[in-house]
Amino acid sequence: MSSKSDVIENLRKAVLDLDADRARANAQEAIRLGIDPIEAIDDGLAKGVRTIGDKFAAGEAFLTELVMAGEAMKAGVEILRPIILKHKLQRKSTGIVVIGTVRGDIHDIGKNIVAVMLEAASFEVNDLGVDVPPEKFVDKTESNGQIVAMSALLTVTTPEQKNTVQAIEKAGIRKNAKVAVGGAAVTPEWAREIGADGYSDNAVELFKKLVAS
After folding, report:
1. Which of 76, 162, 86, 147 is nearest to 120 (CA)?
2. What one-character-per-residue DSSP string does 115-169 give?
3. At the fourth CATH level, which superfamily is domain 4-88?
4. Backbone angles phi, psi at 202, to 5 degrees
5. How many Å apart are CA 151 and CA 110, to the nearest integer?
6. Domain locations in the chain?
7. CATH for 95-212, among 3.40.50.280, 3.10.690.10, 1.10.3720.10, 3.40.50.2300?
8. Residues 6+ apart with CB under 8 A from 90
9. Which end of the chain is less enclosed by CB atoms within 10 A, N or C?
10. What pLDDT digit, counting tens, does each position of 134-145 carry?
């Protein structure tokens, strides 16, 4: 019989092996054993993706491998998501987040991990998807958003984060909206340079602080 640690390790290995079917099977086993779905994601699925992401950043893995790892993670998350949402309904909303990958960038692995973790922490998440222009962030934030979260995997798309911050300022809603940036191409120095309110490897804790500030 599988133990909790076995299942979490198998989730991590499934992602490392780019195996979506195994990710689904082990996610179902995690539910059967009553494992916290967030622990299964963070210590299993997401840990595998982060390992591939680090290899990609170091030039030791191809973009196709990173994408396939993300698909494997997504397959497992889809199994665990109903349990997460069920728990979320039992708690008061923590805050509202508008999240998306900036214009010119179609990568959603990191964004999806953050969105799932935020939902699990009872945030209301409005996911705009990928290749999101500044005006779409502005439109959604004007009607519904305390925090704007922008992801950029590619260095060439990071200027779109700056453009979006400027668009939010121009629209006159910057004082009501906190801005967080992330992604493989983003650094804390870049976040400060463009006037973002935060950058962190632990998005949930950062966003809780932004809501409270």
Report:
1. 86
2. HHHHHHTTEEEEE--SSB-HHHHHHHHHHS-SEEEEE--SGGGTHHHHHHHHHHH
3. Methionine synthase domain (1.10.1240.10)
4. -115, 90
5. 7
6. 4-88, 95-212
7. 3.40.50.280
8. none
9. N
10. 999 999 998 777
